[in-house]
Amino acid sequence: MTGLELIISSVCNATFCEPVYDNPITEAILSDQKKEIQKIAEDLNGKHLKIGTYDNYPLSWVHTDANGKLTGRGVAFIVLDILRERFNFTFDVVTPVKNYEIGVEGRMQDSLIGLVNSSQVDMAAAFLPILYTYQIFVDFSTILDNGVWMMMLQRPKESAAGSGLLAPFEIHVWYLILAAVLSYGPCITLLTYLRSKVVKDGEKNISLSPSFWFVYGALLKQGTTLAPEANTTRILFTTWWLFIILLSAFYTANLTAFLTLSKFTLDVEYPEDLYKKNYRWVAPEGSTVQYVVNDADENLHFLSKMVANGRGEFRSVNADRQFLPYVTAGAVLVKEQTAIDHLMFEDYLKKTKDKVPEVKRCTYVVAPNPFMEKLRGFAFPKKSKLKLLFDPVFTYLRQSGIVTYLEHRDLPSTKICPLDLQSKDRKLRNSDLSMTYMLMGVGLATAIAVFGGEMIIRYYVRIKIRTNRGDRHKIKTVKSSKHRRFRIQDDSHPPPYESLFGHNSRYKTNGHSTTKIVNGREYWVVGTVSGDTRLIPVRTPSAFLYQRDK
């Protein structure tokens, strides 16, 4: 078709314009077809037709007046009115026994396709998917539009990406971090043990308990009393510190971005998610969805397993609003995009009239990816001459964009209740801080459990030891305490903090010690027994949690 024909068809809306046959090269070839089309048009002039349709708002539906007469409504009948005005015919509307596109369980005669196949109607004014199985029973018109089936579900309260403190990283990243925390302490113990056996320089290995406390303390950015002199051990400590610095930097940045700029995502984005996550879903009975799911040759046939176990349902309703209770109860609605858009828009307008707050009007949301896509058109009985007459007009209507305009003319130009509502402010909710509450609860429960364990061990175990060993245990305890009291201190290490307050302190304290800031750090200014002045770094109170005796 030439560009001139498209322009002409757009200007006159394909209603009163004839196809252009003034090309001398093709005029002879098209003369027979033109004569046939003119003859069909003459036969149709003033004729009364029977038009089949079914309820599929807003594309097609039927209104019954007080006299019981059926009147067709929707986009399909606007297109049919264009044909009626162009070719001068009248029609009556006929509906199938059941509101089905194609019959289920072998009862095709109850469906719209069955009406057309049995020639009970002259054509079907409805947007029917052009499927191979349907083409066995009827002839389809040229393509009118591309039908898209979407999935509508209730808007979740939080994104599928998660919320709270665990949101910045995926779950397998947290597992790897936990594995690193649990394994690095034993690695330090093992490597320092091997070094102490190979290199005889007097430095002992670091036992398992101090190693774990070092790893845990560094994870919380706390100091340590361990002061290794071997380069191997220092490199181990530095490696862990670098790991923690980078990890905390990435975590802090991602947490900030998540709480302020995160994109809202859904659990269901593809049809496969319905099956993998066992989501309950519902679709109209006798619709294309039911046929595609039950057809073994279709890609969506795997969903038939969900129908068998009751997780997928096909329901017959009088209006699309009757699907909303299913969606509110957690089911996913599968239907044409035009129908879902009108359903969501009407629900939004209803809540607006009811003065529902703005933040609560968008109750439902549509998955970002389609359930399926199918080309659609009108249906004719096999070898119907009306198809040859109407197809050029259908082509003009589609190419000029009139069909697309009619499908969306009652909808706003903006997207209805988008996935991302683009709120200007992002206030923290309890769900964002739920992990902090859990950490507090787990920490308190752990501390109570450890305290109870210590009390049990100190009370019952000591009584048992004293009963079995008697005085020998007391003598051994006294000797052990004396041995610890007079152990030799290594002057190469920093002085222990307890030396400031102990009975055998090497420093003179009078209760009025002063502090001094040097290079941004606070130090105690104390005097030694020999009259010198020393600067002792001041530790934060939390550092005492990781104090360990050598």
UniProtKB/TrEMBL annotation:
Membrane topology: Multi-pass membrane protein
GO function terms (MF aspect): ligand-gated monoatomic ion channel activity
Subcellular localization, as worded in the UniProt entry: Cell membrane
Predominant subcellular localization, coarse grouping: membrane
Biological processes, Gene Ontology terms: detection of stimulus involved in sensory perception
InterPro entries: Insect_Ionotropic_Sensory_Rcpt (IPR052192), Iontro_rcpt_C (IPR001320)
UniProt keywords, alphabetically: Cell membrane, Glycoprotein, Membrane, Receptor, Transmembrane, Transmembrane helix
Transmembrane segments: 173-194, 240-261, 437-461
A single cellular component GO annotation: plasma membrane
Signal sequence coordinates: none
Residues covered by the Ionotropic glutamate receptor C-terminal domain: 171-444
Keyword Protein biosynthesis: no
Coiled coil region boundaries: none
Domain of life: Eukaryota
Short name of any one Pfam family annotated for the protein: Lig_chan
Keyword RNA-binding applies: no
Entry's family note: Belongs to the glutamate-gated ion channel (TC 1.A.10.1) family.
UniProt cross-references to PANTHER family, sorted A to Z: IONOTROPIC RECEPTOR 20A-RELATED, IONOTROPIC RECEPTOR 60A
Listed name of the protein: Putative ionotropic receptor IR76b
Protein source organism: Cydia fagiglandana
Lineage summary: Eukaryota, Metazoa, Ecdysozoa, Arthropoda, Hexapoda
